[in-house]
Design goal:
Elements: H1 17-22, E1 35-39, H2 51-60, E2 65-69, H3 96-106, E3 110-116, E4 120-121, H4 122-127, E5 148-149, H5 157-169, E6 175-179, H6 191-201, H7 213-241, E7 246-249, H8 264-267, E8 274-279, H9 292-303, E9 309-314, H10 327-339, E10 343-348, H11 358-370, E11 379-380, E12 384-387, H12 390-395, H13 418-431, E13 436-439, H14 441-446, E14 454-457, H15 465-476, E15 480-484, H16 503-506, E16 508-515, E17 522-525, E18 540-541, E19 546-551, E20 555-561, E21 574-585, E22 588-593, H17 597-604, H18 607-621, E23 625-628, E24 634-641, E25 644-651, E26 666-673, E27 680-682, E28 695-701, E29 704-709
Parallel strand pairs: 1-2, 1-10, 2-3, 3-6, 6-7, 8-9, 9-10, 12-13, 12-14, 14-15, 15-22
Antiparallel strand pairs: 4-5, 11-24, 16-19, 17-18, 17-20, 20-21, 21-22, 23-26, 24-25, 25-29, 26-28, 27-29
Length: 710
Amino acid sequence: MKLQLLWLSAALAALSPLSAQIAPKGQWWEAEPLRIIDLTTSFFQPDGYDPARLAARKATLGYNAEHLEIMRMPGGLDDRGFYFRSKVSGRENADYLGRYAPEAHKHGLRTFIYFNVHWYTMKFAEQHPDWRMTRENGKPLDAVYDTGADFCVNTPWREWVFQLLRDLAAYPIDGIFYDGPVYRADTCYCRHCRDKYRRIYNREMPSKSKRSGKDFAQLMEFQANSLKDFLHDSRVILKDIRPDLALYMNGGVRGANWATGRFNRTLIAEQDLLGSEGGFISGDLTRVPLWKPGLTARLLETQAGGKPTIIFSAAGHKPWTFSLLPAPELRLLYADTIANGAGVWMGITPMEFEEPEMQALTEMNRFVERNKAYYTKTKSAARVAVVWSEVTASFYAGAAAQMIDIDRTASRSAIGNLDGEFAGITESLLRAQVPFDVIDDVTLDKEPIDRYRAIFLPNVACMSDRVAARLRKYVEDGGNLFADFETSMYDETGIRRGDFALASVFGVSAASRIIGPLRWDFLQPVTATSLAVGITRKMIPSTAYYVQTRPGTAEVAWKYTEPLAGRYDGVPKVSNDPGLVTRKSGKGTVAYMPGDVGNSINTFHTPELMQLVANAGRQLGASAVRLENAPESVELVVRAQDKRLLVHLVNFTGEMTRPIRRIVPVPNVRITVQGQYSTAKSLWTGKALPMRNGSVTLPLLHEYDVIVFE
């Protein structure tokens, strides 16, 4: 069978006849932004609330949809905790769903049934050994969330799930949400997967431990397609019962999805919405991007093929299940989600349900309800794109695996940290108030990119020859590029090249060495460049690593200094190794830095490196909107709708710690726009703003506002 890298597929499968047949336009989930509540009663007692009062309470809080947890699962799911009628129930409980669903509809709540399909009790797993997910060593998977097991989509377990779908669809519900299904970094090697793989590829399954080459690409293709097959069959069952039943799952993250098989570009074909956990924040929040939900929302919009997107946020500070975030953090999770075009899902435990912080979410829900016309059928107006490369995340040694347990990741190389690269570049652009989209490998390979004035490639190490050729033409036609470190050094299956695929674009060639780690060394300007405006220092802290390159047609603006033996080892001499090169190519401009600039910014927030990326965004991307008198902690998002321009402002200005307990309001923010607009108003206050020469002044910005220009 001819190998096809799924995330680079042109067809995306979303255009299949079945999808066209069972997903007509104009369904209820497309009519307005969804505001979804998930009250996690599955850890408590699903029938512990009076149905009428519970539905009324959720509606009073401003939600228009919910994930209803109707299966009890402390320690995982089994067949004894169903609070609805089912042919596969191991114990008959109260039919709470029969009582609750009509009450939800009375209060305007659309009900998705929350169905966990990736965590089961060990006792239930032991009763069904042939369903279990299996490690490469032949042992069944255990310790899922420390205490449970999981089942494989290619086993007879799928028929058990499908019967539950039929049972649930007999009730007046609106859809099914799958939490899962997923693989793990060393699964699934059960006999059903091995047999299916052998039938399709006429060979034995390769190891998942070697993350390079066509064998690994084929294995990822198989696992993603297996999840897709499961979704497809689920979808056919539901749509055959009622075409207006929606189906979607907990999708792939902005991370390395090779371990789980959740490649959104493949799986969106069999879903009605695309959702991901962009708003789950955990651990030391000073190391978590404030704008994490918005970054994920940007990527989902790219991958969704026009379908609605949902960002899942938890009201708690993970890993503590019952640790409620302060109200400002909740508002910001919500605001950054809707500013970037996504609907909201908020996970709340019953212990938090009546806490005063819920009022913050109610205010946001009611704001969206009042202004839903401004959140429907909008599109990004950004002129800059940053690439999140799923291919690089899958094959590159500098990318970890996104595991299911929120506090676990697989190991990765310290060199070329992909997540750090992306985080540093995007933070620099956000703080420079440069609006941008997040695009992926499929965009670069198959979709139009000429709408962007500039594309940033933060260590997009793995790249096909076709993508390199498209980027070369993009620059020749007038597009601008900013790239760093090992961008294009590997092919689309992770095999290292002898030189960059973009060597002629960069104007330098790669030598055979990566230099580093550099702990106290420097970059030094040697030639003036407009990208360095505002940077006056002669000694700039070095990146941690850099690719040793040979100068070619590019102009060398910065060079690395000779490594020092110690931090006090005198003044370093300038080396011959380029640190920043620029080049005109056709009508476009290219800036390339051999160092791991994004990761160094993410680690140290080096002012000169942040300034350089900010300059590149402003000069090469030229936004149509400019802010004045706003600190760099105010995020700018620009979206368009008909003849409207929607300028979203998210104010992350806190008191220098996280979680944020108080936002510092920003007075007199000045917004200037290009274009023929005659009126402007603040959505938060509902007041018109006087406009002069394309500029307005917002008297006071709290957490969030939208300025509507018409």
